[in-house]
Model the fold of this input.
Amino acid sequence: MRERRGVQERMDVLDDYLSELGRSSYFDILRESRESKYDFSMRSVASTAGLTLVDEGYNRRNVGDADSGRAMRMALSELHPGAAYLDGGETYTVARVRLDEKSGSDLREAVRETADGERLADELVCPACHATHSLDADSCDCGNDVPLKRRRLAVLDSVDAYHDNLRLTSDGNEARYLHDEPNQEVQNTYAERETSILSFDPDRTFEFRTDDGERLGTLEYGDYSVLLHTDSYQTKYKSGEVDARETLFEVCGEENCPGVVYRDDDEERRCSADPEHFPDGRGADSEFVRLGYRYDTQGVRVDLDDRDLSHTLAHGLRVALQYLGGVNVREIAEYVGEERVDVFESQEGGSDVARLLFERTDGDFRAFDRAVNLMREQFRCDCESGCPSCLYQYGCDVRNDRRSFDRDGIHDILEESGLTIRPAGERRAGEQLTD
Done:
């Protein structure tokens, strides 16, 4: 009876909460969730990649349950072929990689339909110098007499990571031989991800204006299709050494083989899964892969007619959205294009926090005004032109290259000219059209 009353009480609380949500604005929902100890999350369930650890004795154990794994956007960097994985003080190395062939085919088809997507989907790579070529290329002009090898965009399904002291096959080497320096302890093998905007469908357009009405640029809000991808890594060792160059993701080309290509102690190239597979000639050729993950989300496109100004303002908006939406800066990504900068959620589906910038209260963009005040405070700093306290951020698309910013320019706009937004085409009462 007591349990039944407890369930009924929880149901009543939930009904009250849902009724309150129905009377609240989206801005209030996100703001109050940040302040509540129950922190209501609107994040959708992201795609995952499965991980199995193979211990000494060849005992297998899954990390997570059957319905979970590593979030795909992190799996690209942390569960790629040859990746080191630390568990309980022991090091494991990804030695078996299973790809989702159907999802990979669908992804390549979708990417090919976008501008400049053909090379992302399929290309040829020179194994000697790592230069890339279109599929109709015959050879590389680097002077090395090696055939070009195909690299295709692929989707990760699951991986097996072997203990570093465990032999990969009955007559193969230990898993640590998947690294260039097998006798050194690995610190990390993190693979840097790249971002490509496959499509942007703007729904609303606003103009940036000074307090005096001077037009500065545009702010577009809409739906994004984003591709995260990576194709190589460099191993860092605890000794401080780093591999001289990147290691490309190379897998066995035999049908249904999950093997990763590595060099044994005789410098012969081997398949980590089957000693009867020979990457260099006798059988199916190995291939390079680019691991990719596509997701849809929402965000804004910033265009101040100057890329450095746009990039600086984008960092300011990322800070502001942390406070307005109660999210972490890691959940707000960016892409720095040739002319514009995109700011969007890094979660699959997104929770639409960017829309908070355009919430109107009594006809005014008070949330955006608050964002401007937050940015103004953020950029008030005694450093020369930018530092981790005011400008540099986790997840910057160009790794916080100081040449990509104009903090002084944004400072002048925020402190002297003022910054407001208005819907494109909307004029204030009495305002005249100008050329």
Observations:
- The radius of gyration is 26 Å.
- The longest strand covers residues 287-303.
- The chain is about 25% helix and 30% strand.
